[in-house]
Specification:
By secondary structure, the chain is α/β, with parallel strands linked by helices. The protein is built from 9 helices and 8 strands.
Length: 263
């Protein structure tokens, strides 16, 4: 079995003390590759720096909607230069988050539109974050998103109409440990059987969203735990875990344009 954690933040400070052990657990759990996702200028540079240390790590660069109020032309140009590195295979995490509102709506929208243009110019797939945008995210994508770039809606937890819209746009659906949570993940589990098998990605969003059963013992999530996400999806869909893992590996490599037999 080969697993690809399509979205994690391994450059987070919480891994500083036991990083070698995190890597060993990742290998034991058959997690062969990981996408380290950038969320702002400094963090994206750190993601790339970490990706350069291991063949099976890749990086994305971007500005998270929480940081959109600080998005400047200089930041975008800096990220564009980072994105020319061969280890940078995606643009993001970018999108809209009207739940916590760490940045004003207008700033989030302008930052997202600018990043969509950057990704298109570089022909990079996008990693999207969406929360409580009440249709505005969809409107912006319909106007500014080039489907040829490709992309994934990270940590999907929306409703059926939203999911169907994303699928119609050719996007992949990223599933996290939320699917394993008894109450919080109930609605998501109902939708899992409706996602085409060739459009599913698995992710941890580590160090956040630790799945069950690990969340009963560990507060911090890590790439090794993506195996629990895979097992839950397989259980809900009535699929063979190893076969499903192979398909999801192919999906992830296809999105990020990595040869499937690499690693």
């Amino acid at each position: 079995m080969k697993l690809f954690d399509s979205h994690c933040h391994l450059n987070d400070r919480s891994y500083e003390k036991d990083f070698p052990e995190v890597l060993r657990r990742m290998e034991t759990a058959d997690v062969k590759k990981a996408m380290i996702v950038g969320i702002n200028r400094q963090n994206s540079a750190g993601a790339l720096q970490l990706a350069e240390t291991r063949e099976n790590f890749y990086a994305s660069v971007g500005i998270h909607p929480h940081d959109a109020k600080n998005c400047s032309k200089e930041d975008l140009l800096f990220l564009r230069n980072l994105a020319r590195h061969p280890k940078v295979l995606a643009w993001g995490e970018t999108g809209l988050d009207f739940n916590r509102m760490y940045s004003p709506k207008e700033a989030q929208e302008n930052c997202l539109i600018s990043q969509l243009a950057m990704a298109e110019a570089l022909h990079l797939p996008l990693i999207f974050h969406e929360r409580d945008s009440k249709g505005r995210f969809k409107q912006i994508l319909q106007t500014h998103y080039n489907k040829d770039c490709g992309g994934v809606v990270h940590c999907f937890s929306g409703n059926r109409p939203e999911m169907e819209t994303y699928l119609e746009m050719g996007l992949y659906i990223g599933i996290t440990g939320i699917a394993t949570m008894k109450s919080r993940g109930a609605d998501l589990r109902e939708l899992l059987t409706s996602i085409p098998e060739d459009r599913i990605l698995i992710e941890t969003d580590a160090p956040y969203l630790t799945p069950a059963p690990e969340r009963n013992k560990y507060r911090r999530n890590e790439p090794a735990f993506v195996k629990s996400v895979l097992k839950k999806i397989a259980q809900v869909r009535g699929s063979d875990p190893e076969s499903l893992a192979g398909t999801i590996w192919q999906n992830t490599c296809r999105l990020f344009r990595i040869p499937e037999n690499a690693g």
